[in-house]
C-alpha cells in the first residue's frame, strides 16, 4: 500500500521517477489516493529541493541525477571559474548594460565587475546581487519572479515579463551542461525558457562553463542558443569536444588560471 505521510510519499515519488521515468499528476494522484493539488505541492517541494525536474502540462521529466545546489557547486573547479570570470569581465566596457544569469561562475564574474565604472547590471541571481549591492558605480536591476531555492535565483512569468522590457549589450549564462547540438541543459523548463529569452534580449551571448560541463546532459530541459554565441571554458576542455562546438560556428575561448603574486609583507589582503 502506498505511504500516506507527505515525506514518505515524496520519497516514493522520487523512487518512481528513477524506475519509470515519466508520470502525470493524475496518475500519481490515483496511485497515492490523494488530490491532484497535494501531488502538485509534493512536486513543487521536490523541484525546489533540486531532486526532480518538471515540464509543463502536468507531466514531469524525472531524472535520476539530482540537481546540485548553488552552495554545493560554489567550491567546484574554483580556479577554473575564476579564470573564466576574469576573461568575461574583460569583455565588458564602461557604460554598458549587461545581463547576468544565476550560478557560481556568473557570481564570480559579478565580483570582477565591481571595478567597472558606469555599468548597469540586471540579474536573476542572488549571488550577483550580493556581489554588487554596495558598489556605487554599478546600477543594479533585480529581475524578480518565483524564487527557486536550489539555484538561488528567480524564474517564471514575472521574470520573463521584466526581460521583455529590456535589452542588453551582453548576457552571461550559466549551464548545468552544454552540448554543441542541444545548447544549454538544465533541470527544468522554467530555467531553459528563461535562458532562451535572456539570449534573445542581448547583442552578444556568452555561456560560462568549465570543462567538466562540456558534452554533459544530466537533465531533459534544453535552451537553444542564437547563432554566433561564445562558449567560455577552461584549458582542460577536451579538443574533440571543442571541435564539435567550433564546427557549428560557436566561438570557443579556453582560459588559463591566473597565478596571483603573494602579498608583500605588511601589505593588506582582500
From TrEMBL:
UniProt feature coiled coil, ranges: none
Residue ranges of domain HTH deoR-type in the record: 6-61
One Pfam short name: DeoRC
Keyword Disulfide bond carried by entry: no
PROSITE patterns tied to this protein: HTH_DEOR_2 (PS51000)
Keywords noted in UniProt: Transcription, Transcription regulation
InterPro entries cross-referenced by the UniProt entry: Carb_Metab_HTH_regulators, DeoR-like_C, DeoR_HTH, NagB/RpiA_transferase-like, WH-like_DNA-bd_sf, WH_DNA-bd_sf
Keyword Transport included in the entry's annotation: no
Transmembrane segment boundaries: none
Name recorded for this polypeptide: DeoR/GlpR transcriptional regulator
Native organism taxonomy: Bacteria, Bacillati, Actinomycetota, Actinomycetes, Kitasatosporales
Amino acid at each position: 500500500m502506498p505511504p500516506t505521510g507527505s515525506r514518505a510519499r515524496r520519497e516514493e515519488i522520487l523512487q518512481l521517477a528513477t524506475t519509470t521515468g515519466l508520470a502525470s499528476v493524475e496518475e500519481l494522484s490515483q496511485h497515492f489516493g490523494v488530490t491532484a493539488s497535494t501531488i502538485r505541492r509534493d512536486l513543487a517541494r521536490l523541484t525546489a529541493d533540486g531532486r526532480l525536474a518538471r515540464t509543463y502540462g502536468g507531466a514531469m521529466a524525472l531524472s535520476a541525477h539530482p540537481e546540485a545546489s548553488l552552495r554545493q557547486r560554489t567550491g567546484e573547479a574554483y580556479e577554473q571559474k575564476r579564470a573564466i570570470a576574469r576573461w568575461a569581465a574583460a569583455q565588458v566596457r564602461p557604460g554598458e548594460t549587461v545581463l547576468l544569469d544565476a550560478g557560481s561562475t556568473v557570481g564570480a564574474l559579478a565580483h570582477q565587475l565591481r571595478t567597472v565604472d558606469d555599468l548597469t547590471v540586471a540579474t536573476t541571481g542572488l549571488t550577483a546581487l550580493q556581489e554588487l549591492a554596495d558598489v556605487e558605480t554599478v546600477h543594479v536591476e533585480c529581475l524578480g519572479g518565483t524564487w527557486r531555492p536550489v539555484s538561488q535565483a528567480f524564474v517564471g512569468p514575472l521574470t520573463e515579463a521584466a526581460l521583455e522590457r529590456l535589452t542588453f549589450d551582453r548576457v552571461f549564462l550559466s549551464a548545468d551542461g552544454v552540448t554543441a547540438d542541444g545548447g544549454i541543459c538544465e533541470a527544468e523548463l522554467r530555467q531553459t525558457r528563461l535562458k532562451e529569452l535572456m539570449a534573445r534580449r542581448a547583442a552578444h551571448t556568452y555561456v560560462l562553463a568549465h570543462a567538466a560541463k562540456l558534452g554533459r546532459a544530466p537533465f531533459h530541459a534544453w535552451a537553444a542558443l542564437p547563432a554566433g554565441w561564445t562558449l567560455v571554458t577552461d584549458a582542460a576542455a577536451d579538443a574533440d569536444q571543442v571541435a564539435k562546438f567550433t564546427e557549428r560556428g560557436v566561438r570557443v575561448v579556453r582560459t588559463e588560471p591566473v597565478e596571483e603574486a603573494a602579498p608583500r609583507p605588511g601589505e593588506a589582503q582582500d
